[in-house]
Amino acid sequence: MDNREEIRERAEALLRRFYGYSSFRPLQLDIISSAVEGRDSVVLMPTGGGKSICYQIPALMSEGGITIVVSPLIALMKDQVTALRSNGIPAAAVNSMQTDEENRHILEQLFSGRIKIVYISPERLLMEIDRWSRDLPVSLIAIDEAHCISQWGHDFRPDYTRLSRIKELFPHVPVMALTATADRLTRDDIATQLALRNPQLFLGSFDRPNISLRVRNNPGKKERIRYISTLIERYRHDAGIVYCISRKAAESMNDDLRALGYRSVVYHAGLPVAERNLAQEKFINGDVQVVCATVAFGMGIDKSNIRWVVHNNMPRNIESYYQEIGRAGRDGVKAEAVMFYSYSDIITLQSFVDESGQQSINAEKLKRMREFAEASLCRRRILLSYFNETMDHDCGNCDVCLNPPERMDGTVIAQKAMSAIIRTEGQAGFSMLIDILRGAARQDLMLRGFHLIKTYGAGRDLSYAEWNCYLSQLIQLGLVDIAYNESNHLKVTQYGAEVLRERREVTLARYKEPERLKGGRRRVAVEEEFTELKPAERLLAQLKEVRQKLARKEQVPPYIVLSDKVLLELVRVEPTDMEAFSKVEGVGEKKTIRYWKPFVTAIRKFKGVAEPLGTGLSHEETLLLLNAGYDVGEIAATKGIKERTVYGHIAGLIRDGKLSDFSSVITREQYLRVMAVAKENPEEMYTILADEMPPGLPGVALAISDYLLRQKDK
User: Fold this and answer.
1) Residues paired with 291 in a beta bridge
2) 643, 611 in Cβ contact below 8 A?
3) Which fold would CATH assign to domain 530-607?
């Protein structure tokens, strides 16, 4: 067997045992093999693409070595450590949110070899790095959010640049740099800044096909609230995020949703730390349905059942947009990403660009974001193209693909708009121009004499929303421009003037009325009667209740117990015993032992299974518990059966060739004693040994003898 094949077998066994998955996702095994072989690497995978497995499995494969994970995100550290421990993997984090005593205790465990994976911030690592390089047997160093080290990255952090010391002090330890968002320039710079040695590049697909993409051009505040309400109600047992451009906007959105009766919280950097932490904790634990936040929220959130993300304003670049929508659907189940877009966003974001230290870079990134928002082509293809990934077909899961715009002759509309701009001498902004065209009686409009121009009221036949849609398209087509340096007034471009003068035809996408809640309902009850739901939906709701109770009891987020994807698989498979539960994708050994009984009980009750739970323990279940470290007494107690029965299962497993490590069941001395008595007095063997060892253990020794003879014959 070659080295790669051996790595694959060991890695797959660990994946099944600790994580409950039967196979790796694309690139994961290649990345793991590279790390085990001692190679540096740069890994680009989408949010939710399984990056953490790429360094966690090598950590488990290392005998005696420690894996250091560098992360700037305390929330991520906490989530990852909780998830690892729930899977039976010894992990811990060292960070500023813990007391000095807590951190000291963790470091003691680290140096005593009781921790396999340690998460740490870059600042704290640089404080510890000299001592660790001398005294710790480090097998792998993973640097998460690695784009932070590059000045070309969208979230550059100067402290990260000092991480180049890692290769100076750990020259022979493989370093894995991981990120979800980096273009070609950024990923090359990551390798340079970290001084990686001939790193392998692993470029996963940036496509998240389970997330639908939608952009809506400024539907107005009332319609935005209505749309968000439909999302909350559609995913009433799950969660969503509304990203806002400012703290004030986030607070206003939160107030509006709470007024409608929804469980919402607000999160932004201006709140006290305790208030921010409480909001995040409520969101993670499923106590609220939605968080209204600025971009300060979400980094490191590993919550798997975020079903939707709404951008109330356009993000400043595609990297941020991609990272933020990636917080939805991390479990691979369908999710929605919706962006509301207006020209006031462009104006605000342009001011951010003007005040930034990298105007040319940020201006170009904003331009690409705007092109995405205004696109009439498949949005996913545009998004993937930004990250240098080609898609040769439309995705079928974005608004452009699902509902292609209807084209119309917009020549007269364009003529009216551009004529009005010219007659105001380019002194009207977006909103003012629409009011001129619709003949609004605004005082400021009349004071400036705009009610006297020929085109005043020439567009009364169209609503404000229609004019908003069509005027936006005229800007997208390059007929009209926004003069950001002149109070954001609208100007007719040279191209627009030619079109107007030569009366060229202008084709526009016809305005569509936004979807509205049926019956005009503004709020429905969060909990529906089970009788109104389909059987699978009823079972899923019941399993979520079981999960919620377990999560509260253990004081962990519900998705740490089991993800939504696993719950859906339980609904599909409907396991009615421990063995069937253990084979569900995403359920490892530790979670099987801890959670099988409450979930299987709920499923059996739903299916109307009359037989009481636990009237026996199959050989496979015994094997599962043995592999998880349970001794014979603990296995017997788990199901309330005799130890003799457990020994009988073990003997059967050995005869079937399913158990070849007997050290935790019988000692060499016990085995030799049984063999000696069996040879001298086989008929009285069990009577003679009754006072020396547990009933059933002699049968295990005989099964081992048979097994060894068969192995010898081979």
Assistant:
1) 241, 265
2) no
3) DNA polymerase; domain 1 (1.10.150)
The answer to whether 663 touches 629, Cβ cutoff 8 Å, is no
Q: In whole angstroms, how far apart are CA 637 and each of 554, 632, 646, 651? A: 21, 9, 10, 19
Distance CA 478, CA 492 (A): 9
- Look at domain 211-401 and name its CATH class: alpha beta
pLDDT the model gives residue 519:
38
**What token pair was written down for 348?**
């605000």
Mean pLDDT, the chain, integer = 86
| Residue ranges of the chain with per-residue pLDDT less than 50 | 1, 517-531, 615-616
Q: Where are the beta strands (DSSP E) in 298-420?
A: 306-311, 335-341, 407-409
Quick check: 337 and 231 in contact, CB under 8 A? no
Q: Hunting for tokens 């991609």 — which residue is that?
A: 322
Report the pLDDT value the prediction gives residue 162, as an integer from 0 to 100. Answer: 86
Question: What are the backbone angles phi and psi of residue 213, rounded to the nearest 5°?
Answer: -115, 135
CATH fold of 3-203: Rossmann fold (3.40.50)
Q: Tell me the DSSP string of 62-125.
A: SSS-EEEEE-S-HHHHHHHHHHHHHTT--EEEE-TTS-HHHHHHHHHHHHTT--SEEEE-HHHH
The pLDDT, as a whole number, for residue 371 is: 79
Picking from 5, 92, 87, 95, the residue whose alpha carbon sits closest to that of residue 53 is 87
In sequence order, the 6+-apart residues with CB closer than 8 A to the CB of 171 are none
Q: Residue 627, exposed/middle/buried by CB under 10 A (0-12, 13-18, 19+)?
A: middle
> Would you tell me how many other CB atoms lie within 10 Å of the CB of residue 555?
8
Greatest alpha-carbon pair distance for the chain in Å reads: 120
Share of the chain above pLDDT 70, in %: 93
Q: Single out the residue of 403, 389, 238 nearest to residue 308, CA to CA.
A: 238
Confirm if 598 and 604 have CB atoms less than 8 A apart: no
Q: What is the pLDDT of residue 585?
A: 92
Q: Which two tokens stand for residue 697?
A: 């253990």
| Tokens 């936040």 sit on residue | 293
Q: 407-509 maps to which CATH number?
A: 1.10.10.10
Structure tokens at 381: 């293809």
pLDDT for residue 553? 92
Q: What is the pLDDT of residue 346?
A: 83
Residue 289, both tokens: 């349905």
Q: Where are the domains of the chain?
A: 3-203, 211-401, 407-509, 530-607, 619-713
Judge whether 3-203 and 211-401 match in fold.
Answer: yes
Contact indicator for 619, 587 with CB cutoff of 8 Å: no
What confidence score (pLDDT) does residue 75 get? 73
